[in-house]
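Dear support,

We are seeing what looks like truncated structure output for some complexes. This example has four components. We would appreciate it if you could run it in full and send us the complete token output so we can diff it against ours.
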Amino acid sequence: MIVVMQAGSSEEQIDAVLARLGEHQLQGHLVRGAERTVIGVVGAAIPPTLKEELEHFTGVTETLRITQPYKLVSRELRPADTVVNVRGVEVGGNRCVVIAGPCSVESEAQIMATARAVREAGANMLRGGAFKPRSSPYTFRGMGEEGLKLLAQARDETGLPIVTEVMTPNDVELVARYADLLQIGARNMQNYQLIEEAGRTGMPILLKRGLAATIEEWLLSAEYIAAQGNHNIILCERGIRTFETATRNTLDLNAVALAKRRTHLPVIVDPSHGTGKWYLVPPLALASLAAGADGIIIEVHPDPDRARSDGGQSLNHANFAALMPKLAAVAGAVGRTL
Amino acid sequence: MIVVMQAGSSEEQIDAVLARLGEHQLQGHLVRGAERTVIGVVGAAIPPTLKEELEHFTGVTETLRITQPYKLVSRELRPADTVVNVRGVEVGGNRCVVIAGPCSVESEAQIMATARAVREAGANMLRGGAFKPRSSPYTFRGMGEEGLKLLAQARDETGLPIVTEVMTPNDVELVARYADLLQIGARNMQNYQLIEEAGRTGMPILLKRGLAATIEEWLLSAEYIAAQGNHNIILCERGIRTFETATRNTLDLNAVALAKRRTHLPVIVDPSHGTGKWYLVPPLALASLAAGADGIIIEVHPDPDRARSDGGQSLNHANFAALMPKLAAVAGAVGRTL
Amino acid sequence: MIVVMQAGSSEEQIDAVLARLGEHQLQGHLVRGAERTVIGVVGAAIPPTLKEELEHFTGVTETLRITQPYKLVSRELRPADTVVNVRGVEVGGNRCVVIAGPCSVESEAQIMATARAVREAGANMLRGGAFKPRSSPYTFRGMGEEGLKLLAQARDETGLPIVTEVMTPNDVELVARYADLLQIGARNMQNYQLIEEAGRTGMPILLKRGLAATIEEWLLSAEYIAAQGNHNIILCERGIRTFETATRNTLDLNAVALAKRRTHLPVIVDPSHGTGKWYLVPPLALASLAAGADGIIIEVHPDPDRARSDGGQSLNHANFAALMPKLAAVAGAVGRTL
Amino acid sequence: MIVVMQAGSSEEQIDAVLARLGEHQLQGHLVRGAERTVIGVVGAAIPPTLKEELEHFTGVTETLRITQPYKLVSRELRPADTVVNVRGVEVGGNRCVVIAGPCSVESEAQIMATARAVREAGANMLRGGAFKPRSSPYTFRGMGEEGLKLLAQARDETGLPIVTEVMTPNDVELVARYADLLQIGARNMQNYQLIEEAGRTGMPILLKRGLAATIEEWLLSAEYIAAQGNHNIILCERGIRTFETATRNTLDLNAVALAKRRTHLPVIVDPSHGTGKWYLVPPLALASLAAGADGIIIEVHPDPDRARSDGGQSLNHANFAALMPKLAAVAGAVGRTL
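Here is the complete output from our reference environment:
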């Protein structure tokens, strides 16, 4: 850490900072410039709160952190890619994965039809929401455990591992009993009790990036899970909130490429939420793989016009099937397989 | 609701929309323009999902909602201001309230010293965190129930009602046993299980706006609480996330003035989180009251340099005491009292 | 256009709106719902200001526009792709273009070396700034006409058409004498005198999206040029400003795919400014082509460590050459050529 | 400046940085920590481009600037407030100023009526646009010189100094002949030729903050003017673009309070553009003065329903007159006069 003193700061002010560093068993190394003095902080263990602690010492202008605040998930710690195994499907290896399915599980007919269709088209996993976070209290909030049972039934028939969202700590045990991959939604990326509880199951976790979360905050939330001893974490970029309203969110593929450098964890992309419009899903799904994503998760519905949630961003079966060979072609173009 | 058809949409496409409206017992009223046709939707109860349901019908360009999606909290429903009573302190009446205290409860000495200081300076309530959401798993996360007991002790001595955050549904019962006003933090504004559980206590709820939440989403979260039969809701603007990084967040006083028009609920402001810098807190606290806020909530610490969280945005006792008469003057200038 | 009246609006208020519509030779078509009345506006020519004009009539809640405000550049008007010819290089056809070169022209040696290198690697055009907009008045602002002459010399030797920025109306004639494609930078996207003056040359224009410009505003700026009778417009997405600071900007590939639907104009992408980090340029360049862009524009410098501007986001010659076959592979995967 | 080396950087990499510093007559001061080495840069004159120059040296993680990049406008350079004299009206002193008038000059009757009304209500200056930047090429773009003449006529009768926008360098001489205060609009905050040309007149300049400009960029644009030897600069906050769409922009009063600390220049606020809704103008105007602004600029129109631009955010004469005593009360509450 670097402590920047104000122009004209006094020796007493500098000494006060040095003394505080001493209390933490740290040394301060002075660099006296023409205009101002800066203090380099050296020592074994810099407390995470030191930055804000020093920031408002009299005579201090600002403090600058020079290392990332996450450790376990950083690529500095572990240079090789982590591969997460989800009931036999590897995520983070050379093969890109495709996860597909409806936003919400709505009925046996619906989930079975889509599970078969995406299986046939070549998808690797089935998605489907049984517990749905909704902005309005008056909208459909999912089928609950009944939905989980239908997902399990679809898995039994198709062999596809299933991913579904868990929204609150009390439901973790229930959802974990059915799911192969536990999804933490964007609204819950900083719901720490939930992600710790999910982490403690040891199961693979799909951690969606929050709508307004920085890449650093996203990786810090992954660090919460890793700190439970669970490294089976898959990150998912799903669009951030910006001033642009012509699309539902702004899919941030910069974040995918940057996250791949900063962490050893696999990163996938959700172009359905990331764009909010079904006709933008194919080009952005292709772009995601080209940007280096380890897979994509897409909403597919047998009849999007009658979907109970997010129909406008869902592909129908035919459009999904048409997309798969294009995904394979782009994966091949960047040296991977599908 | 208005359904806008594409230029050149066919009669069959229009009929398909009308048929779907009929399934919902709604009527469609056609307006045929030179370029395109729009359909006005008329009927008793428009399902909340109708908008997205119709949006991707073939031939439909977009659908436009013409009423707000929240009902119970809207000023259309209840034109008069709601006044929330927090253990005898009224919020939302002519008198503006000042809530003050440390970010985190750290020790008996600290919370008692600050409770006495803010009481003496004229504050109406005491704030203090016992459960703290933190971006990093390696930082101080609060004293837990021990902190709640210290808050209760401070209330016993000073008479100030206490406000403290609850972070997860399982803690609601515990926190509610001590608190007079249950705070839902910004990260949890859309943690629906939590806000419903908090709402069911019937206690006053302080609902902070999420970092990236629109005003509409904020009011919809309030609607979740109101839908539990609990109208004791106080909204709190605390800054939104924008491109500007010179301040921690961007305090949105437009949102305060607009929320006061759209809802009957009281609205207060947190300039400490809203700016992130203690020296910006006084001007923005004054601005908040001038903009029509019903009160402010400010971080005060006996020794901000040694605070375990958010020290950089906390006022010390002397600065808080110096601010109070200025707040009173501005309150008076806009026809209110402190 | 749709005019939404408030719940409980009076007949007088409705009549006032209808009367105003009549003044503009428009008809209002009433749709009376259970809660409120809306008025559909029908007529030959709706004035562009009508929306704001009606918005604050007493009794009006809001007005909703149902057509895009741009006409000449819209795909509704012209369904087929426009192909812009830049000194023999076609932009917008099946072949994707690659424009490469340094941020700023710095010396004869520099620009000639890079021109030869990018030519050899297969680039189709040469970029280079002679007039540079810089946030600080104390930084290098380009070589001016001397830089233009060096660009022309590079074109003479390599045959590559040249693209360079013009920053102010008075320089349009000068820059147009040298350039093959006139670049309007992001800061000037709404500098209307400049874009009209540039448009009047009839030359191909490269219109970069502003840092905070919506897709609609971007297309409206293109409309300014088209309204001068010049349809030789190439749009360029180059990243928008968001809360994320780990990358210089957030490259918005949603916008590329959406713009391709809304306008017949070609759209290219600048991943150098869009990411701000040279090591993110290759993955985002690949993603751009996968998303449907008609080409990319990349900063290349013989020695980025010594570049006078934007070195951190420039590829060196070797990295650029290594990228080209990957671009060709992705172009091929989406059915195009390079 | 601080150069942060990567963990495990080699001595050769460190030496390369030191050597480059030597080329600039700067010294590098090494601070070797447990994990990594940082280099403090010491010397008389650090080139503005050094940061980006060093940022991509092999072995360098990042470079951190520790001084503000603006000099002439910084409060460090000149601690006392600058007071700008606009034809006898002082801006930046103890008295807050109120500038009022229509968005656009539309007719003699309109501008004279409003000039008289705002004068009578106590305004200090008259605003009115003769050249208007508009997103669409099809909307009213102002009366041009005819509008300037009408403004001058209004000044002759009322004695109010006039402020009006200039949009392009070629118009500076013309507009300067009529105006007392030259306005640079938000879209042109980084139109450097324009602001330099305006600066060279030596006249007072009203510099609006760009829609997506950071506070630092805003002050750097002011630095461009100051670098012309013209210190008669008034900054104007007018709202930034965020994800919130319920208001036209998000008025950033944090920026006002922070700018007042960072620069000696006066800062005023435009709540009309900042909110986009006339009924939000009074509360935000009051908030602006409470936050420490040196004045406000408000749109006032004799008949907002018939305004040719921005009618929805304009006060009518009566509402403006009603606001003035409230502004005076809030100014008084913060120790100032109106």
